[in-house]
Amino acid sequence: FILIVIGLIEYFRRGSDLKDSISIALLSFLITYSLNFPSMFLGLYLLNHQILRLQLNLSFLTPLTHSYRPLVSLFTYTFGYILSFLLSLCLLYVSLSVFERAFRELEVKEATSSWVNYLMEKHYFSFLFGAVITLAGQSVSLSIGILIPLYLRGYIQRRNLIPYIMGANIATFIDTLTAAFILQNAAAVNLVVIKILCLFIFASIFLIFYRKYYTVIEMTMNYFLLHRRALLGFLIFIFVTPFLLIIL
Questions:
Q1: At what angle do helices 161-171 and 173-182 cross, to 10 degrees?
Q2: Domain that holds residue 231
Q3: How far apart are alpha carbons 34 and 139 in whole angstroms?
Q4: pLDDT (tens digit per residue) in 109-138
Q5: Is the pLDDT of residue 1 over 80?
Q6: Sorting pLDDT into bands at 50, 70 and 90, what band is 34?
Q7: What is the 3-state composition of the chain as percent helix, strand, coil, each rounded to the nearest 5?
Q8: pLDDT band at 176 (very low <50, low <70, confident <90, very high)
Q9: 1, 27, 35, 149, 182 from 23: Cα distances, Å
Q10: Rounded to the nearest 10 degrees, how much is the dihedral formed by the CA atoms of 231, 170, 121, 20?
Q11: CA gyration radius for the chain?
Q12: How many structural domains is the chain composed of?
């Protein structure tokens, strides 16, 4: 959701093409589903057969659990959920402006010859780069969102983003794993470990057959961008599905 918000902000700020503005969000959704759908079945198999079942004693984390609760309670009590959300949107807008200003003097030719872009050209390095950036920021929305202005300005090619997004999608579960440790929930730790393992297995397969994977993702993305009804239906599906799962 936040990637769509960033794309829309860039659309209104820079007057970019709407399809280009939301293309990274759409690309991220497609990659996420392509990784999570097959890994879900493998994960269910591993869970049902009790494979990789870890025996954990997490009592040593009890002091940490009690230390952060007062701070969280104070923040939510002071600002409230709605105001916190609005403030986050304002901070996001300001952050994008500062980030873009840092690259304003760069030429596209200079950016594409930088060492970062060189690494992005190598899909294995791009995969690791996405994982490292996500681990550093503990947010897949941040690690992918910072690329939207660069993509719209032509600094990064779309074909180089796919492995990066794959790595980010896996590394984002590290904070979930951390939360499971903090909550001292051994079952949740096992679940997240299996999830990360399954995602890594299928990501490795897709990287080995990267050309075919890229072709399928690109064709699917172009179809949605060229057919507004299909794109609208896909976006509705994205937003409605979580609520349906909660109800069911």
A1: 10
A2: 2-247
A3: 20
A4: 444 556 566 666 788 888 988 888 888 766
A5: no
A6: very high
A7: 85, 0, 15
A8: confident
A9: 13, 6, 18, 12, 36
A10: 20
A11: 20
A12: 1
